[in-house]
Design goal:
8-stranded mixed beta sheet; globular
Length: 248
Amino acid sequence: PCWIDLFSSDLDGARRFYGELFGWASESAGPEFGGYVNFDLDGVRVAGGMHNDGQSGTPDVWSGYLRVADDDATTEAAVAAGGQGIRDPQQVGPLGRVGLLVDPGGAAIGIWEPGEHRGFGVLGEDHAPSWFELLTREFSASIEFYERVFGWDVHVVGDTDEFRYSTFGKDEDSKAGVMDASAWLPEGVPSHWGVYFQVADADAAVAKATELGATVVQGPDDTPYGRLVTVTDPTGAVFKLQGINPEA
C-alpha cells in the first residue's frame, strides 16, 4: 500500500474534520486535478481527498492504492487472475498513473504507478495511516489473487472458522491483512479494503471524533494490536483508530 484517499460528499467539511481530529493541513491541487485535495501531517503527505458528487452512486469511502511498476501489466494480470479492471490506467500529469481493479471477492483496490508522487511519506506514526485490511467474502480466492497479481507472500495468522486471517509479509515486515468476513459482513455490505490510523490514546481520539460529528460503529476493543475502534466520519466514510498499547 502506498496511498489512501477519501471520496466525500462534503470535502470542505472533511478537511475541517480530519484537520481537527489528526492535525492535518490540507491544500487543493487545483482545477487541473479536479479539485483533488492533499492532506499533510507536519508537512508530509499522508492522504488525499476528492469530491463525491453522487453521480457514481458510490457512498463516501476511504480507498487504498497499491504501488505497482506497470499499471497496464498489472491490470492485465488482474483480469487473467479472475479480477476486473474497472478503470483503464490513466496518466495524472507528471505525478504517475492510476488504475482501479476489483478482486475476485468484489473489493475495489486502486493501483498507482509512481512518477513524481511516490505516495504517503509517513506510516505507522500517530495520526498517520498504520494498517490496511481486506474484509472479504471470498477468502481463498482473494489470497490467491493478491499472490498472483502482486507477488505478495502470505503468512497465516489464524485458520479457524472463528478467525481466519493472513498477512502479506510477516511480523514486522507485514504490509496488509486479509480477514475472512463471510460469516459476519452485514447483508448488502460488499467485500472491501479498510484503513487504520494510529493514535496515542484511542479513547481520547474517539471522544474528539464524536465531538466533531463522527459515529462509533464498533469498539473500543483491546487486542494484541492495540485498542481498536471503528468509526464513521460525519458523512459516513468508515475508518479505524488504532490506539497503541503502551506495553507493546
